[in-house]
Write a structure and sequence with these properties.
- Strands 1, 2, 3, 4, 5, 6, 7, 8 and 9 form a nine-stranded mixed sheet that branches.
- The chain folds into two domains: 176 residues, D-Maltodextrin-Binding Protein, domain 2 (3-Layer(aba) Sandwich); 95 residues, 3-Layer(aba) Sandwich (D-Maltodextrin-Binding Protein, domain 2).
- By secondary structure, the protein is an alpha/beta fold.
- It is built from 13 helices and nine strands.
Length: 325
């Protein structure tokens, strides 16, 4: 019987089994992205989240070497957007632009088939600090005076949806500041809250600074306290909560995420290219003009940690408030 060398046997095996070798070669040569990337938002065209997506997309095609398209799926406080993303392959060609609202939707079981564990943060896009504000008719002109009175007085706070992001911020702030839990008065949006602050129908509110910018400049609304690590440039004389000894930070945030299952190498590419697209002067000017925090753009580690923290505190707050599905 003729003997063959090990090297000859290996070459014979490779030649005899091309089908086994080819898929590996194909995977090694595959590029990402290989087609248009869909950016799924829960906002209608022209909404804040939609505009954020489109501002990112000005320079993103050059980074990804592919086109990007916004897919607006409005409804169910993010449930429709989550359902659409869940119907797509988890290959990195579908990304979500999410807010804390999506997490509350998941917490309340309103996105069938999905849980928070399915959300993988990729890059934060905006961070809009919330600011304690009162109307011009308020007797309070400093945060310390307001908070001292709020220890024994149950003030009326304007907010948006009961059980929503703004409501939970008010609840958390009251706990952190050691004041009476306020009476919540819900409105349709920040514009209505500003009107009712000016008219004196409510005592205070936590509002993003860009929303009542005109009323602040006119002196009709008085910002008392910034719930962020740094002061807000548009209201530089307003101290942060930490400056007066309160560990309280609350903001409205938006950022990009995918559903679990996207390969790690593609997550790294998405993170890198999205951050580059949002580091351009155009996008940074957009952040400044809308009152966002200077360090709004952040990578996976920071963004995922922030999502985790909000999900944890949101779950606790909803339980304490007795708000269920």
């Amino acid at each position: 019987m003729m003997k063959t060398s090990p090297a000859l046997r290996r070459r014979t095996l490779l030649l005899a089994t091309p089908a086994l070798a080819m898929p590996a070669i194909g995977r090694a040569q595959e590029t990402f992205p290989s087609r248009t990337i869909e950016v799924v938002t829960h906002a209608g065209v022209g909404g804040g989240t939609d505009i954020t997506a489109r501002m990112m997309m000005v320079h993103a095609p050059g980074e990804f070497k592919q086109e990007l398209v916004v897919v607006n799926r409005v409804g169910g406080s993010g449930a429709a957007a989550l359902a659409y993303a869940a119907s797509k392959p988890r290959d990195g060609h579908t990304i979500l632009l999410i807010t804390q609202t999506h997490l509350l939707t998941l917490l309340r079981g309103r996105a069938p088939g999905l849980t928070y564990e399915d959300i993988v943060g990729v890059a934060r896009a905006t961070e809009d600090p919330q600011v304690l504000m009162v109307g011009k008719g308020s007797p309070f002109r400093t945060a310390k005076d307001f908070l001292e009175a709020a220890k024994t007085t149950k003030f009326k706070f304007g907010t948006t949806q009961v059980g929503g992001v703004d409501h939970l911020a008010v609840y958390g702030f009251a706990k952190e500041a050691g004041i009476q839990q306020p009476t919540i008065v819900p409105f349709r949006g920040g514009g209505d809250i500003a009107i009712n602050l000016v008219s004196g129908n409510i005592d205070a509110a936590l509002v993003n600074p860009a929303e009542p910018e005109a009323q602040i400049k006119a002196g009709d609304i008085i910002p008392l306290l910034v719930l962020h690590e740094e002061r807000v440039p548009s209201i530089p004389d307003t101290p942060t909560a930490k400056e007066i000894g309160i560990n309280s930070t609350h903001a409205t945030v938006r950022g990009f995420a995918v559903l679990k299952g996207v390969p790690e190498d593609r997550l790294a590419i998405l993170e890198e290219k999205l951050i580059k697209a949002m580091s351009t002067p155009l996008y940074q000017n957009y952040l400044a003009s809308t009152g966002q925090a200077k360090g709004s753009v952040a990578g996976r580690r920071v963004w995922q940690a922030q999502l985790d923290a909000f999900y944890r505190t949101g779950r606790e707050a909803l339980a304490e408030l007795g708000i269920t599905r």
